[in-house]
Amino acid sequence: MPERFEITAPIPRGTTVLEASAGTGKTWTIAALVARFVTEGTHRLADLLVVTFGRAASQELRSRVRERLVRTERLLAAAVAGTAGDAGAAASAPGAEGPWDEVDHLLAGPGLPGAELRLRHRRLRHALSEIDAATIATIHQFSLVVRDGLGVAGDATAGLTAVESVDDLLAETVSDLYVSAYAHFPHPPQLTLSEAQEIARAVVRDPIAHLEPQDCDPRSAAGQRVRFAEHVRTELARRKERTGVLTYDDMLAHAARSLASPAARARLSDRWKVVLVDEFQDTDPLQWHILREAFHGSSDMILIGDPKQAIYAFRGGDVATYLEAAGHADRRLTLSRNHRGDQHLHEALQGLFGGAELGDPRIRVTPVDAGRTGGRTSGVPAPAPVRLRIVDPSGLPGSARRGVYLSGLRARIYQDLTADIARLLTSSAQVRERDPDRDREIERPVRAGDVAVLCTTNFQAERVQEALAAGGVHSVIASAGSVFATAAARDWLTLLESIELPSSSRRVRAVALTPFFGHTAAELDRRGEDLTDEVAERLRDWGDLLRRHGVAAVFETAQGWGRGGVSDRVLRRSGGQRLLTDLRHLAELLHDRTRRVPEAGVIALVHWLRERMAAPEGEDLRRLDTDDSAVHILTVHGSKGLEFPFVYLPTLAETFGAENDLLLFHDATGRRCLDVGGTPSPEHRDLARAEDAGQALRLLYVAATRARSHLVAWWMPSLERTPASPLHRLLFARGSGDGPIAATAPLPADPLAEAAERWGAQVHLEEARIADLPRPGTPSEQALTGARSWNRRIDLQWRRTSYTALSAAAEDRDWSEPGGEPGYDLRADEQEIQIEPGTGGHGPDGPDGMDGTAVADPAGPGDVLPSPMASLPRGARFGSLVHGVLEHLDPVAAGDDLRGRIGELVGEQLTYWPEQVDREVLVTALEAVVRTPLGPLVDPAATLADVPRSERLHELDFELPLDGGDRARARTGDTAGAAGPVTLGDLAPALRRHLGAEDPLAAYAGELDGPGYRATSLRGYLTGSIDVVFRRGGRFFVADYKTNWLGPLDEPLTSAHYGPAQLDAAMRGSSYPLQALLYSVALHRYLRWRLPGYDPAEHLGGVLYLYVRGMAGPATPITSGHPAGVFSWAPPAGLVTDLSNVLDGGAA
Questions:
Q1: Fewest C-beta atoms under 10 Å: which of 200, 484, 1132, 1144?
Q2: d(Cα 145, Cα 167) in Å, to the nearest integer?
Q3: Residue 365, phi-psi category: left (phi > 0), alpha (psi -120 to 50), beta (remainder)
Q4: Cβ-count burial of 382 within 10 angstroms (0-12 exposed, 13-18 middle, 19+ buried)?
Q5: What pLDDT sits at residue 827?
């Protein structure tokens, strides 16, 4: 174990790794070391180089160094004046607040000769006079100093301009390379443009990572991706040089090349005799290479860092580099006293984390001493320093396979969190802190600003803020992602698009509803063209203003336009301060863009904003709206370096997001690698997962150590998200004092009992029970802005929803969360159907032991045809390709050239949905689809080829009121007397009333009675788009295309996998019955509105689900009159009308 570092001991020579822990005072130590070097006369301030890894950190470090030098100078001035023997008199000097510490005694304490005191005072006076010239810089700023200081030896970069971002140049490079590579490609490329852009951003963001895989066939998909990544790096470098710019990463690369010269290394070590590096755990191999080459073995170098807080791998931080440097340093020392946490909190956290290995045996939580005795709070409702609240899942919906649904667990945690914070803020709790004006500690009531809620992601932070707002707790999110991913960015895009084309009625109406004009839909409807003409005229004026004076002038003018201007309109809203901050921030960014590229007009500005919104990252972090009397909500990454009296951790018992196929890991040699192949090898995936698991534990350590006095965390029993979460692993994958922590751990049968047995001495265990919510007296936003007070009740059940969202909510799928889906706008209903094991495609009585796919009925050779799509891809993109072709195809108009027309459409749609397919096979398969009989529900001989375009409506969009739409209805019929809104479960009685036992979907009523459907409310509007509505024989049919693969993956796909029994099972194994019901109601309401003399019993034809992989053309096998691949169902007209009434609370 390394020796302890003492600030008053002789300062070590050579290269020293000084390992810190949270709260042990890294910045304090650096400032004290600078004061010692200068005051004791071993080095001048100009001899010192202080390096850190962020602008804010370097500014903070410069401020802290200056404060320490000022303090020491004041103490020495008092000592020289004859008051050195009186510690109180010396400490009372301006700028020397607080009691003396050990550095004060060492540098200015009694016992030093008068001549030495005067000499030290002169040194400090001189150092303060040149403090602004001190080299306290980020590593990138240091590389710029290296370039300028070395002159000719610093490489030929003097004529280049340093820029923070080359996003525009990168986008141009990717587009050019992609077009050059694939414009004349005979087949759709295996690499899509979206994938190419994602790869390019990754390889440019991590320029030193070695690209993998290198041993693949260059013609393979992986080989193409690697080659494209390499070309991006090469071509971007060429274009940067041609345009005369370089990034901060380029500066580092130039500095590293410069240091190949012994003369250059000597000049740097001669200039800086001492190098102090802060946050060294966040360095990367190239940065360490520069420091090592320049100073190791020639200057004294102290590398200060805490590997337990290495959490920035996604930003290039490489803890492996820290560990390598530690292994080669002349000595390792540790900072061993915690100055942040109160004594009892410190002891509890030491017991909880003590001995734990955080991703590597060399990253272990070692003992440190408590720097404080007692605590700094009193009167806290729950006084335990560390509290673990165990979520009771009782009453929450779930399933046997997935356990308790995640959404219910989250909601319960957020509600419990809100109640706990509200109890604290309404209590008589006191916080003790130092009053700098009176130079003593005082007690004051707890404030909202004393509380921090730390989340893993911005998505979680926003959900927490919603819960706190619902409970009356004012909060603010710090740096909640990119400003280009906000509603304000969408409002600016709408404005710029309308300025670009003010003659477009659609754009003018859209911008009229934004905060820039503040009109309502009702006003647009009432005033019509008068209002749109007024807005269009104003847009033309603003367009002229933008061309002459830029975006800032437009925004300033908008501030005074209309009823009170933008600010007044926005601040009247809930969350208005946040929106206004984002609008202003974007105005500055857009104006800066027009200033830097003055020739760019509004069209170029729109294009630039769209690109930034598509890939929001870089320097555009959202600004803080206001932190007045507000609970702070931060991501754990954003909280690093901060501390709060009360810290809440509601999300650390949950893993979040899907795995990325662009994997970052270190190989066996320790080399940093980036796998861009798209299908990583199991070895690479295991290495990346192990590193991610270690970083997750370090993230938990950082989060827990932000607390000064009290820490509260939540544990939940989610089968999907808890076993691999960092908090769960810390609690249940190790015992007290154990080192290694497994990557996952099973959920305990009795979490309270097991946690008490393992950690009862360190943690106060509590069951999370939702109690009445106190309402803290927070200052209202209305009082700050002068807007009128809110006195209406918000209907939190109201929403605009869709079939996909409803089925996802009922089944608790995280369909809308970031990281859950690839970056494509794909059809959500084209995923593979999973038929329950045991049905075998034969219904409930099918044979046991099946693998979850449809099993064909035994049939003679003449009854089975190969699926025309058996060799074609599976998945959502292929489904969208098929939908696109069938949507635009008019078989009747194509006449004898049907095949040629299908081929043209396939070519067109492949540009939107790139897929590796054999075009001829796909054309043949789609021709078979449109020539397959549709079955007895329509006409035994009818096919899609017989339905002309005039008898079809493709992609029929609808928006239906639910439970009254804008105004809730009184409950009648099946829902009369029920409390709360209509739910999906309320559809079940109508199904039981109208469907006989022989109906293939009769059993779906039981599904709708499940807890997930009963908990899914229907109030607001249902939106959607029906694939096809067609008319045949005076009746109207709903048709939906499905590309699901229903056969086993290890045998040829045939029409037998799409027989009636198999399709019945596929429908029962999915949420498609809900879709059929909702779309039938949508058609009913459409016809009721548009068709004179409409009679549901006469005009509603039914629903067809066309499983296109089973449709083999005119020869498609027919079983009991039903063609393979065609599922048809005629819901009784009475069922459709009853469901329509239920969905609208009886008002339809």
A1: 1132
A2: 25
A3: beta
A4: middle
A5: 41
Which CATH number fits the domain that encloses residue 517? 1.10.486.10
- What's the pLDDT score for residue 859? 42
Output the six-digit token pair for 861: 């050779």
Percent helix / strand / coil, the chain, rounded to 5:
45, 15, 40
- Integer CA distances (angstroms), 652 to 191, 355, 410, 722, 727, in order: 36, 20, 12, 9, 6
How many domains does the chain contain in total?
Answer: 5
Read off the pLDDT band of 587 (50, 70, 90).
Answer: confident
**Tokens standing for residue 1089:** 């509105």
CA distances from 24 to 28, 337, 345, 641, 696 (A): 9, 5, 14, 12, 22
Tens-digit pLDDT profile for residues 843-875: 333 322 233 344 444 443 347 899 999 999 988
CA distances from 818 to 459, 485, 574, 639, 659 (A): 7, 12, 24, 21, 12
Dump the DSSP string for 252-318: HHHHHHHTTSHHHHHHHHHH-SEEEESSGGG--HHHHHHHHHHHTTTSEEEEEE-GGG---GGGT--
Q: By the 8 A CB rule, do 405 and 717 touch?
A: no
Is the pLDDT at 152 greater than 60? The verdict is no
Q: Which residue has the higher pLDDT, 7 or 786?
A: 7
1000-1034 residue pLDDT tens:
899 899 888 888 888 888 888 888 889 999 999 99
The answer to whether 322 touches 310, Cβ cutoff 8 Å, is yes
Are 457 and 495 in the same domain?
Answer: no
Q: Is residue 213 reached through a cis peptide bond, with omega within 30 degrees of 0 on the bond before it? A: yes
Q: In what order do the strands lie in the sheet with 210-212?
A: 210-212, 672-675, 663-666
CATH for 976:
3.90.320.10
pLDDT band at 776 (very low <50, low <70, confident <90, very high): low
Tokens of 86: 């009186």
Catalytic one among 47, 300, 568, 1040? 1040
Among this protein's residues, is 628 annotated catalytic?
no
Give me the domain span that covers residue 573: 484-614
* pTM of the predicted protein model: 0.66
Q: Specify if 598 maps to a domain.
A: yes
Place of tokens 């020796």: 3
pLDDT digits (tens, 9 = 90+) for 614-643: 665 544 555 555 554 789 999 999 898 899
CA angle centred on 443, ends 437 and 449, rounded to 5°: 85
Q: What is the pLDDT at residue 1014?
A: 85
Task: Give the pLDDT of residue 893.
Answer: 84
Q: Is residue 779 part of a domain?
A: no
Q: Is 478 left (phi over 0), alpha (psi -120 to 50) or beta?
A: beta
Which phi and psi angles does 924 have, rounded to 5°? -60, -45
Give backbone dihedrals phi and psi of 1094, rounded to 5 degrees, phi first. Answer: -60, 130
DSSP state of 483: G
Question: How many CB atoms are closer than 10 A to CB 138?
Answer: 19
